[in-house]
Amino acid sequence: MNTIALPQPYLLFLGDTTEPGYAKTAFGLRDWAPERCIGEFSVPGATVTTGLPFLTPAQAASAGAKAMVIGVANAGGFIPPAWLDALVEAMEAGLDLIGGMHARLRDFPRLRETAERLGRRLIDIRIPPERIPVATGKARTGRRLLTIGTDCALGKKYTALSLARAFQSRGVDATFRATGQTGILIAGGGIPMDAVVADFAAGAAELLTPDAAPSHWDVIEGQGSLHHPAYAGVSLALLHGSQPDVIVVCHEPGRDRVLGHPDYPVPGLRETIELALRLGARTSPRIRCAGISLNTGKLDADEAARVIAAESERIGLPVADPIRGGDAFDRLVASCLA
């Protein structure tokens, strides 16, 4: 697994993003590593904000920032030309650049030449380790939990982080395993699953979750959705390779269309559970679903409580919003560890 030492603290770059779901890297760092985040910066056209102070790169550098992190995870992971001036500005202000896109910072001549001239670092974290093996499908020791989604960008990472923290608070030996750029930035290591050559993706998941003590839990950040028209491949490789004992299905109430693919409806919870268990049983015969994680951030407290209770009764499993916590989340944690 890659371990990364990064220059900190960060200025979060939001580009010209208008869809909050595509700024999940910035939101993830704000929520799970706030001590590393000084402020945010964007270019004209952006409508998304993390709520952190807006700082120019020069202001951020004066406040102690060491790097600007691209906080965007857009479809395809591209860096548009409209961002280049801002990225150069950050380097001229004294900041290194950290990118988690498929497009690598070092592949842009202007960025590379500026970095060389100023002695700045271009750090691309969406690079998998070398010599990943083909998956074996062999059972491994230890216990594993994987978060599964009905769609992208709806809480798989937050759920895994919340569960890992909850396990640890109960005295359980648990490790959060990051599989995407945001999780890697938070955890300081992991494997960017969507950057692995397809034939080796399940092997990467095996590499990420090696043999462990029988009581140890790997809590694995899910990716994509098994029903997703573009990203189902990485979801299936992660499911087969991680061989989870337990899955927790993540969903956002009210989201009825796949993010970025409005012609496709979001699948139902029962449909998602059934497919995940059927496919997951290929490499983990005793796989089970411990419950549902709902992202109720768009609902008020009373409506969220009503939806959580209703879904739990309908599905027959614990349902909770990990960010809201409470008794419902305690029941979900207990079900996972049962």
UniProtKB/TrEMBL annotation:
Location of the D-glutamate N-acetyltransferase-like C-terminal domain: 134-326
Residue intervals of the D-glutamate N-acetyltransferase-like N-terminal domain: 50-128
InterPro entries (alphabetical): DgcN-like, DgcN-like_C, DgcN-like_N, P-loop_NTPase
Gene3D superfamilies found in the cross-reference section: NAD(P)-binding Rossmann-like Domain, P-loop containing nucleotide triphosphate hydrolases
Pfam families named in the record: DUF1611, DUF1611_N
Protein's name according to its UniProt entry: DUF1611 domain-containing protein
